[in-house]
Amino acid sequence: MRIREESLTRLASGEGFDVLILGGGVNGVAVLRELALNGVSALLIDSGDFCRGATGASSRMAHGGLRYLENREFKLVAESARERNRLLNHAAHFTRPLEVAVPLPTFLRGLPGSILRFLGFDWKGSTFSTAGLKIALTLYEYLGREGRALPRHKTVLARGKFPRGLARRYKAVVSYFDARIRNPEALVLEMIEEALTVEPQSAALNHANWRYDGGGAFTITVGDTSLSRSIRPKVVVNAAGAWVDEVNAALGCPTKYVRPVKGAHLLIRNDALFDRMANRAFYFDDGTGRMVIAYPLDRTVLLGTTEITVTDPSDDTIAAQEISYLTRSISSLFDDIEIGPKDIVFMTTGIRPLQAGGSADANRANRDHRLAEDRIERGIPLLSLIGGKWTTFRAFGERAADQIFLHLDVTRRTGTAGRDYPGAIGFPRDEMSLARARQSLAARFNMSMERAANLYSRYGAIAERVAAFCAETPDQPLANLPSFTRNEIVWLIRARAAIHLDDLIFRRSQIALDGECTPLLVQELGHLLAHERGQSMDWAESEITHCLNNPVLSFAARQQGPQGVRCHG
Q: Which of 324, 341, 361 is the last residue of a domain?
């Protein structure tokens, strides 16, 4: 399956589409998948890349939302925990249990403030207490009982059993379990591939544009081709995230549904910090009652997040204050580890499309999702996907699809609650079986065990397909990152619609997240991408320069000025 070529062919055929989905983040793609599995044709359009916005700037966790209990969002927590359990069961190739250690400075102090917030009072400056957290976790685990896939929480009070070097102010450590999603962008691309495979009249295009012509007609243009087509969908889905209101205005339906809240994450490459994490996340108070999360990925530590209400959904800056806040917070966790700008290898930022209204405090804003319905000309339904969180994308997509089925008079024939994602189909569920699968892959394709392990880690069961593609023609490791081969990069370009260099580095691979992105590698990948896409060397140099000058990548220790940095990923 080649996502872009298949989609261009389907759009050019002039067959038409029942549904137009505007936005290629996880929620829009979830709707596309639900529709395709039930025989409804849909065209998904994103003016940038798939996962370009908040989807690609997430905490990379599947979690129930423990902190939402204080806001009494019980329905959201229960749904999130249920969907987390489903991801652990049906996306086992990417989703793994994650122990979350919460160091606490008090046993009881802070409990009254938590109770007051729980009762709806606007009480600030209160930290978690050991007693309060244990009460919350008991409720949290009860709400996540359906399809339970994780151990229960535990408490450590003896300092001799604390994580080594933990700051002296902490009196207890409570640990519970959520889950890590290793490669969420790849999971989104799997869903697109699945949708296009099961429904021949569906399509998904990144780096494409739409224009509303009035009378229910839309013109779709694809910038790097001469293709332009007019379509008349029966239903329009606005999955534009932070841009929901801007899209609705362009369709003649002015709304104020979204409250844009910006969040940044830092990727830290520091051996001492990585080792100290010991495969656990640390969820800790910054000293003001606001919680910070840090946990190890494959080679780096992800640290986040900030929450700043903004007015411009296109605000992709990371302020110097955000960077200093996060590095200062993580430096306070251990007595003997200091983190500074020199340790930052990558940064992400995204705008969360939270529901408008509610608390003035962005940390306490409503995190639940909402489906709003308006009408454009000729009574065409316009469904706006508002709010939501990564973990609940499947449930949100299911809800939106069910409403679309009502408009189209379609009966659901396939559910997704118990359906494996493509990369999980046949993926070994225990370490012994996985070891045997790696050995088999290595033997059949004459590769090292390390190479086989990398492919299974990156693609799950789809590793078989990638290995077969790489074996079709002579292959060789990248000169500047030998854990990847040239043919593997070509597969990402062809099969998964990597059009620009930042698509390839930031969203088709974990290269930037792992802190492996060097100037020489950027140049090598830029030239390979240009050759594969039939572009000129001038085009390649432009792409390379764009990435080399991108301040979210840190090639050396470089301080950021007071104006902050702008993300062009």
A: 361
